[in-house]
């Protein structure tokens, strides 16, 4: 039994006035149940509209959740790999993070289509030093944007390049930390990834850009390996610290990302008033949020590890 005052009738535009007129012709008793083919037909139509409405809501929720599910799978797979991977896998994660942070700094300050004199080398060096902190103060602190520009200009005069022990002309060489087959192989693989990726545009100065990425990446990674070795701690303890920082940073940013995605799912519905598809808006902004989250995770992980090993007595508690 359904009352004509039920909000469902108003929500789905049921003609209650028509029903009231029909009922008044039959009886004046408001509590008497009304039956008839016309009433049943109208109620069936109402039920169909209600089912379509709630089905569209469920479908929308599933589609929104599918967007987040892709991100969730990526994060959970990464977390499982960190937890179950061996020590070498953990180290490779750290090196990839460091190279990725360097790449982001380089990409935001150069243009491979233009001469290095137009690049923001001063800002690039400042951001790189900010990442390295105390670890790079002595070895890299004396490099200026002019000296870096002169070094980049001399790349064309270089003959063969030793990829493993590469250094820009007239600039400090990275610490000699790439000893052993594994570390040399890791350095070579990073160079192959740099050369084969499409993160940077093809241009006249693409090679100079890639060599700059390799030099700064090598300097940061080698400085890190050097300070870890000088700390005197066992490899097992070092890997425990690295794994703990990786997991804690990832979990922290993932929780914040879930909150942001929940807020976004509510906010995009308002955009439908501007004739924009809420789901498409959710996908676009959700992807942008996710990329930003991964970037922040890498950056904070690198900063935390460098800060910890450059001042281990001041970093007893992980960030």
TrEMBL record:
Annotated ranges, domain SecA Wing/Scaffold: 33-307
InterPro entries: SecA (IPR000185), SecA_Wing/Scaffold (IPR011116), SecA_Wing/Scaffold_sf (IPR036266)
A Pfam family assignment: SecA_SW
Listed Gene3D superfamilies: Helical scaffold and wing domains of SecA (1.10.3060.10)
PANTHER family from the UniProt entry: PROTEIN TRANSLOCASE SUBUNIT SECA2, CHLOROPLASTIC, SECA INNER MEMBRANE COMPONENT OF SEC PROTEIN SECRETION SYSTEM
Protein name: Protein translocase subunit SA2, chloroplastic
Protein's organism: Stylosanthes scabra
Name of encoding gene: SECA2_1
């Amino acid at each position: 039994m359904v009352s004509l005052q039920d909000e469902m009738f108003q929500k789905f535009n049921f003609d209650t006035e028509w029903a009231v007129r029909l009922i008044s012709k039959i009886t004046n008793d408001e509590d008497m149940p009304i039956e008839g083919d016309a009433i049943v037909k109208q109620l069936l139509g109402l039920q169909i509209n209600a089912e379509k409405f709630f089905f569209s809501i469920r479908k929308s929720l599933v589609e929104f959740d599918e967007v987040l599910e892709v991100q969730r799978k990526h994060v959970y797979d990464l977390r499982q790999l960190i937890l179950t991977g061996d020590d070498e896998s953990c180290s490779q994660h750290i090196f990839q993070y460091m190279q990725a942070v360097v790449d982001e700094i380089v990409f935001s300050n150069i243009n491979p289509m233009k001469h290095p004199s137009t690049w923001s080398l001063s800002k690039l060096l400042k951001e790189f030093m900010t990442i390295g902190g105390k670890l790079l103060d002595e070895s890299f602190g004396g490099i200026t944007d002019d000296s870096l520009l002169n070094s980049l200009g001399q790349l064309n005069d270089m003959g063969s390049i030793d990829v493993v022990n590469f250094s820009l002309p007239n600039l400090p060489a990275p610490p000699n930390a790439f000893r052993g087959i594994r570390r040399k192989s890791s350095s070579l693989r990073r160079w192959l990834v740099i050369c084969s990726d499409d993160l940077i545009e093809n241009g006249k100065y693409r090679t100079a850009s890639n060599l700059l990425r390799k030099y700064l990446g090598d300097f940061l990674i080698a400085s890190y390996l050097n300070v870890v070795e000088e700390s005197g701690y066992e490899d097992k303890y070092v890997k425990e610290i690295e794994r703990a920082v990786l997991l804690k940073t990832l979990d922290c940013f993932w929780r914040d990302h879930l909150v942001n995605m929940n807020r976004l799912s509510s906010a995009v519905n308002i955009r439908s008033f501007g004739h924009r598809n809420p789901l498409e808006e959710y996908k676009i902004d959700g992807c942008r949020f996710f990329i930003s989250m991964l970037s922040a995770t890498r950056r904070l992980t690198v900063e935390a590890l460098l800060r910890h090993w450059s001042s281990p007595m001041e970093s007893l508690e992980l960030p």
